[in-house]
Specification:
Lipocalin; 3 helices; about 20% helix; Plastid lipid-associated protein/fibrillin conserved domain-containing protein; PAP/fibrillin_dom
Length: about 200
């Protein structure tokens, strides 16, 4: 039941948590802490449970990672392909799709160090732009998206990736905290993802 109530809580606010009240954010964080104590999946960082497509239902992050593009909020998916040791963050908004591809190093039983590889934009399903980037190029692209999204530029690590601290994972729900390599874990953004059906 805690999983169901957590998902319901996340969905009770605005889409993907964008613009959520401080009270709702606090409640989601408290639920995440409770769930972490009940986590059924040991060694999440190497668990086959991660494999597959997940839909973002709540996050405290800003900009495109939360689905924001201009005044609009799109659908955000994360497709993890364990066999390739790759994952894809996908933002879909009408006829626009942006896909950020990345890979990871396992840093511990519940932690990944992620590295961003490239980003591709498509209109009406037709690729119109793809860029492989170094850390500085990645930051420029993401800062440009923040500006387009109408949000303040986030503090970036300039290390072409970040850290994922995995808190909970079962067949249907994942909770993780993500932060830049040179940022404090206490400033991490929470991500709650539901398995895509």
């Amino acid at each position: 039941m805690p999983v169901l109530t957590s998902v319901q809580l996340c969905k009770s606010g605005p889409k993907n948590g964008v613009g959520a009240s401080e009270d709702l954010i606090l409640s989601v964080k408290e639920k995440a802490t409770e769930l972490a104590k009940l986590n059924p999946t040991q060694r999440q960082a190497t668990s086959p449970m991660l494999d597959g497509k997940w839909r973002l239902v709540f996050s405290t992050t800003k900009g495109p990672s939360s689905g924001m593009l201009g005044p609009f909020v799109g659908d955000v998916f994360q497709d993890i392909v364990l066999e390739q040791e790759k994952y894809f963050n996908i933002l879909e908004l009408g006829f626009v799709e942006a896909v950020l591809s990345a890979h990871w190093d396992v840093m511990g039983q519940e932690k990944w160090r992620v590295f961003f590889d490239d980003i591709q934009f498509s209109l009406f399903g037709i690729p119109v732009f793809k860029k492989e980037f170094s850390s500085s190029q990645r930051d420029q692209v993401l800062e440009g998206l923040d500006t387009l999204g109408g949000t303040e530029k986030e503090a970036r690590s300039s290390n072409n990736g970040g850290i994922w601290d995995m808190a909970y994972c079962n067949d249907t729900l994942r909770v993780l905290w993500a932060y830049g390599v040179q940022r404090e874990a206490s400033k991490a953004s929470i991500y709650v993802l539901e398995r895509e059906k």
